[in-house]
Design a protein that fits this description.
The protein has 218 residues and is α+β, with helices and mostly antiparallel strands. The chain is built from 2 helices and 13 strands. It is elongated.
Amino acid sequence: MKKSRFISIVLVMVFLIIGAGYAYWTDTVTFGTTVKTGNVDIAFESDPQMEDLDEYVETKVTAIDNNNVNIKIDKLYPGGGDGVSFRLVNSGTIPVVFDNVNVSTINDDKSMISNNVLTFSVELCKVKNNGEYINPFKNSPILYNLDQVCNLINYRLRNWNGQNNPLILNPGEALEIRNPEALQAGYFVSMSPNAGDQYENATLSFNLNFQFKQWNAQ
């Protein structure tokens, strides 16, 4: 009798210990955790006033989507040119870092680029949330084709804060691609005055594809 009572007491104690251990374990692993993920979103803004520097040349900058911009310049003529200005705004909730830009020519109806009658120049600025403009590069070199434009943009944005330190845009900040103010009339594209009458009313159209990624993405 005493033996059976002893066994019963031992069993009760074992179940109590198991129950307490189970309760402790479940309390430890069942707490709630909420993980909020940010979103990467690049919005496009244009500045039509900067596209009307030449009253005859017609320029239009159009967003195809959040990564692609079309630039179409009509009625180019020898000695003429026009401006281009637009912004890529980080309208997401997390910082983004510049990754890459590519260019593709849609229309060069009079082979202006291959015949070396056009020059290009571009200025890059970071626009902070307080409206401050930042441009660590003090010059805007003359470029002779769209590949050079693309290469310049890639190099400068990948080395914005020094070698291999690319441009980072915090939420609300923007990258502005605009006409270099130091050049004559601030033109993005200009045609040589010696190009010849065959280049009257020429059209150039091309796309720029910008890629950004999450700042801490590997």
